[in-house]
Design goal:
Length: 411
């Protein structure tokens, strides 16, 4: 069996879906070496992984894209942060390779330096991606603004006209700093955004149809495995069993995004409805909120504990929280604030699995209407849940890793 070195960015939303994949590989007899957040080492070791922290300078660089006033400004801030982290995560992975002597690697797609170091290493490696891939396709709209899929001649003309605008902006902002990172590892420059996704021998894409748009031109190195959602062990919150009303779960980003007004608006919008609101605030201070009688607020709570009882999930459009709700067959009201969230929210709407309300239009009345509309989308949410189940999850991911990278066969 193989020694597999896994490397993550400092984001729980990336570590948590990777965990069941590593569990499956470990169950199949492989040795797992993990470099991840210092705060999660004890948990990782309890799974039998040989875990150590990533360079602490990486964890000291939080997202600040929420400070930008435009989508382009947000992209530029995110790119600057990933570039700054790359100065450390690349050498950090190189050092881990030397000290652990792995047979294969699995790298967080957001670790630009580590991805370049993996390619330069020359051994078998994969990336994993827990958010929508910004990959062009003749069957999908240009990535970024959350456009619906094209319909008819006018829709195809729209995509033809807008593709150079959105893809060109993406490439102008991202490719130069990525190529600077690659130059440090003596790798040839990328020619396009699609070229960036063509480099890994394997990309484990943590979603599946019908949530992701069906495409006839998926590259052969991409394997859709479903969300692989996972929660750390936790006890149900006190009083959960006593709640009799239908539960609405509302979430905010695990990486600070200044999206607290989603909680504030939900509390106002649903305070008089026959529901109980449970809000999780992993990057917010719960003391800042006035809680009505039909609401409970928690600084962090694994969503799986709530989703078995939920009739709707209000999310910020983050891929992790949104797909986790849909895995449970719970419809979603997605309120995107930025990043890839416009794309996630549009996919919710197109799949018939819920509703979409842009953050710029967020108000108590609009949110109430969208939540009530989403509650009627149970059938669509269940279709997405079944698509995720059929994708195979951690088992499909582990098999793809073994067969494509390690040369193993599975019956």
């Amino acid at each position: 069996m193989a020694r597999i070195l896994a490397y993550t960015s400092p984001a729980l939303g990336h570590l948590f879906p990777l965990t069941p994949i590593l569990d499956e590989l470990c169950k199949r007899g492989h040795e797992i070496v993990l470099r991840t957040l210092a705060s999660r080492l004890e948990l990782a070791r309890s799974h039998g992984f040989d875990a150590a922290p990533i360079d602490n300078r990486i964890e000291a660089m939080p997202h600040d894209d929420y400070k930008a006033r435009t989508a382009r400004g947000g992209l530029q801030r995110a790119v600057s942060m990933f570039s700054a982290r790359a100065e450390y995560d690349g050498p950090d992975l190189q050092q881990a390779i030397v000290s652990t002597r792995p047979d294969a690697l699995i790298i967080d797609v957001n670790c630009w330096g580590a991805v370049a170091a993996a390619e330069a290493w020359g051994g078998p490696w994969a990336t994993f991606c827990p958010y929508p891939l910004a990959l062009t396709s003749r069957d999908a709209p240009p990535f970024g603004p959350g456009l619906p899929p094209a319909r008819g001649f006018l829709g195809r003309m729209r995509d033809h006209v807008l593709k150079p605008l959105f893809v060109g902006t993406f490439e102008r902002v991202m490719l130069p700093p990525i190529n600077e990172v690659r130059k440090n590892f003596r790798l040839e420059p990328l020619r396009s955004a699609d070229d960036m996704f063509g480099r890994p021998p394997l990309i484990l894409y943590l979603t599946a149809e019908p949530f992701e748009y069906p495409r006839s031109d998926w590259p052969s190195n991409i394997v859709m495995v479903g969300p692989c959602a996972w929660d750390p062990p936790a006890e149900p919150p006190e009083g959960l069993a006593k709640i009799e009303r239908p539960i609405v779960l509302v979430t905010t980003s695990s990486e600070f995004q200044n999206d607290s007004r989603l909680i504030l608006t939900t509390l106002e919008a649903l305070s008089k409805e026959n529901v109980h609101i449970i809000a999780t605030l992993p990057a917010q201070d719960s003391a800042a909120f006035r809680t009505p009688a039909n609401a409970s607020l928690f600084p962090f709570l694994p969503h799986g504990l709530i989703l078995d009882r939920a009739v709707c999930a209000i999310t910020h459009g983050g891929m992790g929280a949104t797909q986790k709700a849909l895995m449970h067959g719970v419809p979603v009201c997605a309120v995107p604030f930025g990043r890839d969230q416009l794309e996630v929210a549009r996919r919710v709407e197109v799949a018939g699995a819920g509703t979409r309300l842009p953050a710029g239009r967020l108000s108590p009345d609009r949110l109430r209407d969208k939540v009530l509309e989403a509650m009627a989308c149970v059938e669509g949410a269940r279709r997405v849940s079944e698509g995720f189940r059929l994708a195979g999850g951690p088992s499909t991911a582990a098999t793809a890793f073994e067969t494509r990278l390690l040369g193993l066969t599975r019956d």
